[in-house]
Amino acid sequence: MREIILARIDDRLLHGQVVVKWIPHLEVDAVIVIDDELDNNPFLKKVTLTAAPNTIDARITSVDNFIKCYETVMGRTLLIAKTPQVFESLINQGVEIKRVVLGGMGSGDNRKSLYKSIHVSTEEMASLVKMADHHVEVDIQIIPDDKPKNILKI
C-alpha cells in the first residue's frame, strides 16, 4: 500500500532539514523529488540522492513521469517540489494530495514575502489558493516543531 503523507514545497529540494527533521518525523518509507531540470541532469540527480538516508526509497522524477514512478513506490511517501504549480498539476491529474507544506521559497524579483523565508510570486500564490479551494490543506511549516500556519489565515 502506498500513501502520500505530505507534499513539501522547498526550493532546496532534498537537503539536511528534510533528512534530519521531516523524514524521521513523518516516518516515511519513500521520498520522491519532482523536478524536471534535476531529473534531466544525471550528475546533480546522483548528488541529490546521496543526501537521502539509505533506509528509504529515494527517487527523482519529472512531472510527466510522476504517476509511473509513484505506482512502483510502497509505503508512506513524502513528495518534494520547488513550486506549488507542480503539486497543482498532479492534483489536476487525479493524484490525491491532502496536505501541502511550504518550507522554503526564496526571495527574488516579483516575489512577495508571505512569512519568514517564504516568498511567493503572484502565480505561485494563485496556485496555492486553487489547491486550498480544492480542499487541500496548505500550510507554512518550516520544520515539524513549528505550528502549521494556514496560508488562507495569514
From TrEMBL:
Gene Ontology terms: cellular component: cytoplasm
Compartments reported by the entry: Cytoplasm
PROSITE patterns reported in the protein's UniProt record: PTS_EIIB_TYPE_4
Protein name: PTS system, mannose-specific IIB component
Lineage: Bacteria, Bacillati, Bacillota, Tissierellia, Dethiosulfatibacter
Key words, A-Z: Cytoplasm, Kinase, Phosphotransferase system, Sugar transport, Transferase, Transport
Single GO biological process annotation from the record: phosphoenolpyruvate-dependent sugar phosphotransferase system
Primary site of residence: cytoplasm
Record's keyword annotation contains Transferase: yes
Organism: Dethiosulfatibacter aminovorans DSM 17477
Domain PTS EIIB type-4: 1-154
GO MF entries: kinase activity; protein-N(PI)-phosphohistidine-sugar phosphotransferase activity
